[in-house]
Amino acid sequence: MSVPFEPIVGRYMRLDLFGRPHRIYVEQAGEGTPLLCLHTAGSDGRQYRALMNDARITSNHRVIAFDMPWHGKSSPPSGWHDEEYQLTSAQYTAMVLEVMTALSLDKPILIGCSIGGRIALHLALEHPDRFRAIIGLQSGAHVDPYYDLNFLHRPDVHGGEVCSAIVSGLIGPDAPEAERWETLWHYMQGGPGVFKGDLYFYKIDGDIRGRVGQIDTKRCPLFLLSGECDYSCTPEEMLAVARSIPGSEATIMKGLGHFPMSENPQEFLKYLVPVLEKISAR
Amino acid sequence: MIEALKQRVNDDAALVRRGRYLTTTFLLEVGPTAWLISIFEGRVVSVTRGPFVMPSSSFALRAEEAEWQKFWASRPPPGSSDLMALIRRRVLKAEGELQIFMAHLRYFKEALAKLRPEGVAA
């Protein structure tokens, strides 16, 4: 019996976060420089499946993706059933640093998309010495709400259906069908109110417009990659961030949307591989 | 052109199935021209061109004709590919009882994308 297995290994980690015990799902593949991956709002670490399956990345990187609490295979903390989930900048920052400490990651490269790209800016500003380099995908300093977020969590609208329908247009036109619908399936699987709770960080609490210009790229190199077809974090918004941060490098990715690593991995890798080569040459 | 919606939606069995719990009438405004579109259990039963004296609808979608034409292009430019993209740019106004629109958002996006040149997916 010989079936192909992917090189990805997943395990559950017991970790205290915000003073409460958590059960966090972590996937890893490859060996070398740690590359810590942060998924988008309302999704999970499966978005990085292609990076973990590509020898160009895993031959010299230890690729790690964890599902945030409430997401994917990570549970919400005990007591969640009477709480409203709302992600804050402080919690998100603490979570990333705690996971790094728990996994003994010494100066990883951080890559984050959307909310992950936003917290990447926070981390570049507040904890630059903890990272070898930071890569922000779809990184904007702020996004104004453009629809009523309450529709994401109410009993007369199916949460999975509406979350995927809200984001489906953010995928670029050339995404392979299988990857497009895999990406949307993750959204359909999100728990009730979780996408909405993440967007509290993205659209309200995580606004970093006033401080983003203080990021010091001499302490932590910053690379920004943004899909051309993303209307949530537009290329213009990424370029505005880049212009305010001396030394940052920004690239617009043709034909890609808001989920480059998941919606169209082969196109995305054309942009990511050179960035990783540049980081390893430093 | 809008009249083509009826046959194109009804010919798509998967789309009709997705809309099997959707029965409503909504107003579509393309610049100065209004259309009332009635749906019964996922099938478009009528597409009626205005002007109307007292149109009754659950909700309305309103945009300038130039914006709809970009949305209905065979390869819409970034920012025009999706109803939510138009809403994000504040060029599409969605007004009325939006619970119906949001509960069936994928249906409405794919139905209106049917007005793209034939053979182009939503």
Give the tags.
heterodimer, A: 282 residues, alpha/beta, Rossmann fold, eight-stranded mixed β-sheet, globular, B: 122 residues, alpha+beta, Nonspecific Lipid-transfer Protein, Chain A, five-stranded mixed β-sheet, 6 helices
Short description:
Chain A is of the alpha/beta class. Chain A has helices at 49-52, 55-58, 89-102, 115-126, 159-167, 177-188, 194-205, 235-244, 260-263, 265-280; strands at 9-17, 20-29, 33-38, 61-66, 109-113, 133-137, 222-227, 249-253.
Secondary-structure map with pairings?
The complex is a heterodimer of chains A (282) and B (122).
Chain A: E1 9-17, E2 20-29, E3 33-38, H1 49-52, H2 55-58, E4 61-66, H3 89-102, E5 109-113, H4 115-126, E6 133-137, H5 159-167, H6 177-188, H7 194-205, E7 222-227, H8 235-244, E8 249-253, H9 260-263, H10 265-280
Parallel strand pairs in A: 3-4, 3-5, 5-6, 6-7, 7-8
Antiparallel strand pairs in A: 1-2, 2-4
Chain B: H1 4-10, H2 13-18, E1 24-30, E2 33-40, E3 43-49, E4 59-63, H3 65-71, H4 83-88, E5 93-96, H5 98-103, H6 105-113
Parallel strand pairs in B: 1-4
Antiparallel strand pairs in B: 1-2, 2-3, 4-5
